[in-house]
Amino acid sequence: MTMDMSDNDHLLAALRGTLFRDEPMARHVSWRAGGRARVCYQPASVADLCAFLRTRGEAEPILFVGLGSNLLVRDGGFDGSVVFTHRALGGIRQQSRGTRPTFAAGAGVPAPHLARFVAKHGGGGAEWLAGIPGTIGGALAMNAGCYGGETWEHVLAVETVDRNGNLRTRGSTDYVSGYRHAELKAGGEEWFVSGVFVFERGEEAPAMERMRQLLTTRVATQPLNQPNAGSVFRNPPDDHAARLIESCGLKGYRVGAAQVSWKHANFIVNLGGATAADIEAVIDHVQGIVLAKTRVGLVREVRIVGEK
């Protein structure tokens, strides 16, 4: 006897993307550690993403993940739905060639790809994006920055989606942005689908040379050969988290296979086989010691989700 499918089953059957269940998130975060997600979805398009979101319950936690470079999923896993934007929300195009050229990029585009595209199409001032190890969606969500540049300094508009699958275009003035955060003034839960960015005019050769210099600096100063999530803590006003951590003698501090990098004190590396609990224990210890010794409360830059 054939049973009737529920409305939600019909919606799921119509999806064109790839659905994963009980997916190890260690495969999808740059720390290469952590638990499983109950449901993961790789949408086939923006329309397909909207259709998937309409199948989710109103109270279900939803997490958008690009390259997973700023994320830790606890070992107990994430009891919700994860949307993978990388390879799905792609595409870069130039929108204008005026005195300040503009470019549109999907949320799943790696930030260094936009940096190179801008340089090759007459733009300048995007070179710092080559140092961001995540996607445009992540850069928008946390106002990512390095080497003197910040994401929201260049945003003209964004496209967002809510949990009901509704798309909206919003201007930069709809958001309050600051050091490593961006927040919708109106409140509510929306995720970035794409952004429109403005840069100065520039020449390809000097821009590409600037990117090469920045990447050389990254290789020399950061532990890029070991799994890590980039800077773990925000820099306090007029100071650097790495300096404070090093001043407390915490370089090399280790729990299990998670260790404060000897190369850069604001990085925690996975030496091989670290659990999310190992990494979180190092984070908590560093915060506690720095607070006790310097009276500075370090604020996490990385996002931690899920159950212990």
Name the features.
disordered N terminus; alpha+beta; 4-stranded mixed sheet; Uridine Diphospho-n-acetylenolpyruvylglucosamine Reductase, domain 2; 3 domains; Uridine Diphospho-n-acetylenolpyruvylglucosamine Reductase, domain 3; 308 residues; 20 strands; Uridine Diphospho-n-acetylenolpyruvylglucosamine Reductase, domain 1
Describe the structure.
The chain is α+β, with helices and mostly antiparallel strands and 308 residues long. It has 3 domains: 7-84, Uridine Diphospho-n-acetylenolpyruvylglucosamine Reductase, domain 2 (2-Layer Sandwich), CATH 3.30.43.10; 92-221, Uridine Diphospho-n-acetylenolpyruvylglucosamine Reductase, domain 3; 241-305, UDP-N-acetylenolpyruvoylglucosamine reductase, C-terminal domain (Uridine Diphospho-n-acetylenolpyruvylglucosamine Reductase, domain 1, Alpha-Beta Complex), CATH 3.90.78. It has helices spanning 7-13, 46-53, 111-120, 136-142, 204-221, 241-247, 276-294, and strands at residues 18-24, 36-42, 62-65, 71-73, 78-84, 92-96, 102-106, 123-124, 145-146, 149-150, 155-162, 167-171, 175-178, 181-184, 190-198, 200-201, 254-255, 258-260, 268-270, 303-305. It has a 5-stranded antiparallel sheet. The radius of gyration is 20 Å and the shape is globular.
